[in-house]
Design a protein that fits this description.
The protein is α/β, with parallel strands linked by helices. The protein has a single domain, classed as Alpha/Beta hydrolase fold, catalytic domain (Rossmann fold), CATH 3.40.50.
Amino acid sequence: MPRRIESLFIDGPAGRLEALIEEPEDGAIVEAALVCHPHPLHGGTMHNKVVYRIARGLRRTGSVVLRFNFRGVNLSEGKFAHGKGEIEDARAALAVLRSRYPDVPCCLSGFSFGSRVILHIGKELAENPDAVKPVRLIPVGFPTVRGLDIELADSTIPRYFVHSTIDEFGPKDEIVNMVAQLQEPKSLTLIDAQDHFFAGALPQLEDTIAALPR
């Protein structure tokens, strides 16, 4: 039986959000994963090649994946809201994912700007005693040039950082320093790539995502 792929619209706080749900390549669904894309004002969409590879790596190991476009991107309504609104968009998307797949644990991943969004939400959920918490957070290409944000990135939820060895928005020394200061559980995987977008190493990125622990 072919895997299920569904295009849908989510009722977001600023209008409809364009989204895509993809079930695993084969086998049972063991996790529901939300994947957030890079900066909307710099060409970021849910079809970004890094986001696509993250999603495919997750699906390979049994995750159903929801990708969506932040407000103002492609068919999503609204306009860019400087991060705060995009965090609200991600909350709405996560709520839909959880309602569709309530019986499996959830995971949050994001690339670049999207990694900041999922760390914000992860921190909120970790600090809320009544919230259903993600079992893991996967920030990819975290942009340290906007500030190391130790407080944002720290959490009791396992965080698996994945980063290019050459990243113009997150220099290697900065991401290593940041992750070193975080409490456990955490990890940092460095991939030998040519730039922030994992040029020359997209297959390795996908394999790394598929190999991360649950």
